[in-house]
Design brief:
CATH class: Alpha Beta
Radius of gyration: 14 Å
Distance between the termini: 17 Å
CATH architecture: 3-Layer(aba) Sandwich
Structural class: alpha/beta
Number of domains: 1
Length: 134
């Protein structure tokens, strides 16, 4: 996902619904990005904090509903959400993201947006990754 997004050193990445924090770790460690995760579940937030400490990665985790977080500083948004969540999120991204910002989504499209690129992520399952540009 991060390769497809073209994430670069010093850029700001938001992982919305940060889950287990793996994207934050990869973004900071391998790409040199300022990584920020947004996760609503307090148990997951605690696990992400533990993962960040264990890996020594400098990233930020915000416990919040991503619909309430200001995303205007993002260069890249990473999402693995449902169709319904993407439907609610799409207008917020259009309002808040600056020109040139990228959104990379695993498995689910952003309604009303045309992807600039699609890719197949090969692993145990074949997954589709969509890249959008504001």
């Amino acid at each position: 996902m991060l390769l497809l997004a073209g994430l670069r050193r010093g850029e700001t990445l938001f992982d919305l619904g940060a889950g287990d924090g793996r994207i934050l770790v990869e973004a900071a460690r391998k790409f040199g990005a300022r990584a920020k995760g947004v996760e609503i579940d307090p148990v997951r937030v605690q696990r992400i904090r533990e993962r960040l400490r264990a890996t020594g990665v400098d990233a930020e985790i915000i416990q919040a509903d991503f619909m309430t977080v200001d995303l205007s500083s993002a260069n890249v948004i990473a999402i693995y959400l449902s169709d319904s969540a993407n439907s609610r999120l799409a207008p917020k991204l259009k309002r808040e993201l600056r020109n040139g910002a990228r959104v990379v989504s695993l498995d689910y499209t952003l309604p009303g947006w045309a992807p600039v690129k699609e890719s197949i992520a090969k692993g145990a399952l074949q997954r589709k990754v969509y890249l959008y540009r504001v």
